[in-house]
Write a structure and sequence with these properties.
It is built from 16 helices and 4 strands. The protein is mainly alpha-helical. It folds into 2 domains: 93 residues, DNA polymerase, domain 1 (Orthogonal Bundle); 168 residues, Orthogonal Bundle (hpI Integrase, Chain A), CATH 1.10.443.10. The longest helix has 17 residues. The protein starts with 7 loop residues before the first helix and ends with a helix.
Length: 309
């Protein structure tokens, strides 16, 4: 620990960790120390009591961009525990906002927009439609798609489920994928075509692309973004493959309002992460509720019909 660092954050961190020693196992204590050092660096070692909600939001967004959702969630949990211990009133407000506020910084496609994108992708190629379906119907990340194996493909086609490798430390974290019935025929068609690719048998990766003069190679995240860009553009959407995954979570949630189910389909460790970052406010449903409330008020309804409201 940097005892030479005499900043407010460092002094408060030492006090907090001193209270934790003996109450948690040494490995966890070391992890708390590493994480708090990272937070201290990110906040410029400022007094923890003065860290604002906005600064916490920026920090969380940065963590989400650099690591998996579960890792970001753990690191933010440690930060909030520390800030609460030090009496930071904004930490409680941040937690409350996280609990009640759905995501609002993403593109959540409507069913009509999903259908439009699907038709556009279908018109471009079988590969475009398969990638779009893996993103939007199954909630895969672009990196998840690049990590799918031939064995994953066989199991998904045969049984409808497979343990796939997602983001995480030490090469990634395994999670169960239940494939959408929409995707199965697309995957079957692709796998049949894959057998005709010269050199495909030398790769364990499922999704391959053919390059002129270079032969076949596994698809990567950048290429997925490049392939999907014209699909969203032609549909008139300022969206990305990441928004396809978020739309999947939103669609599951809208079906039965079950955040836990959405978390399982997206392979999240915490439903809280799913709600905050992957469940968007649904304007269509909100308008429908407002309309139904209005219809229950005869006097107000009469004014609406007469045009006085």
């Amino acid at each position: 620990m940097p005892y030479a660092n005499n900043s407010a954050f460092a002094r408060q961190m030492r006090e907090y960790l001193k209270g934790k020693r003996g109450r948690i196992d040494p490995e966890t204590w070391d992890m708390y120390q590493r994480v708090l050092l990272q937070h201290g660096e990110a906040f410029g070692w400022k007094d923890s009591k003065t860290i604002t909600v906005r600064e916490m939001e920026v920090r969380e967004a940065d963590l989400m961009g650099r690591s998996s959702e579960s890792t970001a969630s753990v690191k933010m949990t440690i930060l909030l525990s520390f800030l609460n211990y030090m009496g930071n009133k904004e930490a409680r407000r941040f937690k409350k906002l996280c609990t009640i506020q759905p995501a609002s910084d993403s593109v959540f496609m409507t069913e009509a927009e999903v259908a439009s994108c699907r038709l556009i992708a279908r018109g471009m190629s079988d590969m475009h439609e398969l990638i779009f379906s893996l993103l939007t119907d199954n909630g895969l990340r672009p990196s998840d798609i690049s990590r799918l194996t031939v064995e994953n493909g066989r199991k998904l086609v045969q049984t409808g489920e497979a343990m796939i490798l997602g983001k995480g430390r030490n090469g990634g974290k395994l999670g169960k994928m239940i494939i959408s019935p929409i995707t199965i025929p697309l995957l079957k068609r692709y796998m049949l075509g894959r057998t005709r690719m010269i050199g495909s048998e030398t790769f364990t990766e499922l999704i391959l692309v053919e390059w002129p003069r270079k032969g076949v190679a596994p698809i990567d995240r950048k290429l997925i973004y490049k392939m999907m860009a014209p699909v969203f553009e032609r549909a008139g959407l300022d969206a990305s493959p990441r928004d396809g995954r978020k739309t999947c979570g939103n669609r599951v949630y809208r079906l039965d309002r079950d955040v836990a189910m959405a978390a399982m389909i997206l392979r999240h460790g915490s439903p809280d992460v799913t709600f905050k970052h992957y469940i968007g406010a649904d304007s269509v449903d909100m308008r429908d509720v407002q309309a139904r409330i209005a219809r229950n008020d005869p006097a107000a309804l009469s004014q609406m019909v007469n045009g006085s409201l």
